[in-house]
Amino acid sequence: MSAADKIFVDMCTDILEHGCSTEGEKVRPVWPDGTSAYTIKQFGVVNRYDLAKEFPAITLRKTAIKSATDEMLWIWQKKSNNINELNSHVWDEWADETGSIGKAYGYQMGVKHQYKEGMFDQVDRVLYDLKHNPFSRRIMTNIYVHQDLHEMHLYPCAYSMTFNVTQKKGDDKLTLNGILNQRSQDILAANNWNVCQYAMLIYMLAQVNDMRVGELVHVIADAHIYDRHIPLIKELITREQHPAPKVTLNPDIKDFYEFTTKDITVEDYVTGPQIKDIPIAI
């Protein structure tokens, strides 16, 4: 069975059984009808996914792996903050009349900074270091920029990636690992979506640097289940689990900026039924 399923079920069970309720407290999110959106939450959830063994897609319900990757490429490759350049509607609630979400996500990835080697944006600096300084302990990105928060339509949730390269004894190739830091996560709506898109990022960066994939470590400061999601989660985690899908990339792509979702192949992805019309707190 999928290792991601077990991780997801264990996490949700722990939140439901041992989590802290925010009911009655002052909370920012509201439901579309204006009602306060309360949660049950756990602090400091850490999940580890061994990408060398399998792609971490849950099978309890289908995760749209290509759509999740498209959003990641919108941020990391296009470095965009405009939903008109995104092939899904996940950001529609936060966009203005021009399609902009403000100085958030892709905008921050595209800002150039001065280094001793020259000017780089955050993505290009990661690519440079993976090629020239793979054992550096400074290969990371951070889009939670305090000076620009007032111009972001939503503060970044998944805000930082730290990459770390290792080498197994006797292996002629290096192994790429990553830590995704997230300040807050809606477990039902976004957990496996984020896991799949950042796993795919590691797949892509490993391929263009002729490395093997290693671990994705997902750190969530506030892992929460919204009150209106509780019955959906309780049903979801009782479902039958299936083997993880086989996910591969077009081996001919050697430049990160050349990847598209057409370069992803997903095979043998057997899942439970999709949960439709999930209410989203805003």
Q: Which segments are poorly predicted (pLDDT under 50) over 5 or more consecutive residues?
A: none
Structural class, please? Answer: alpha+beta
The total count of strands amounts to 11
Rg estimate, integer Å: 19 Å
Strand content: 15-25%
Count helical runs. Answer: 6
Gap from first CA to last CA: 34 Å
Main sheet properties? 7 strands, mixed
User: How do the helices and strands follow one another from N- to C-terminus?
Assistant: HEEHHEEHEEEEHEHEE
Summarize the helices and strands and which ones pair or pack:
Blueprint: H1 3-18, E1 20-21, E2 39-50, H2 65-76, H3 106-110, E3 113-115, E4 118-120, H4 122-132, E5 140-142, E6 158-166, E7 175-182, E8 185-186, H5 187-208, E9 212-226, H6 230-236, E10 246-249, E11 264-267
Parallel strand pairs: 7-9, 8-9
Antiparallel strand pairs: 1-2, 2-9, 3-4, 5-6, 6-7, 10-11
Structure description:
The protein is an alpha+beta fold and 282 residues long. It is built from six helices and eleven strands. Strands 1, 2, 5, 6, 7, 8 and 9 form a seven-stranded mixed beta sheet that branches. A two-stranded antiparallel ribbon has the order 3-4. α2 packs across α5 (187-208). It is globular. The mean pLDDT is 97.
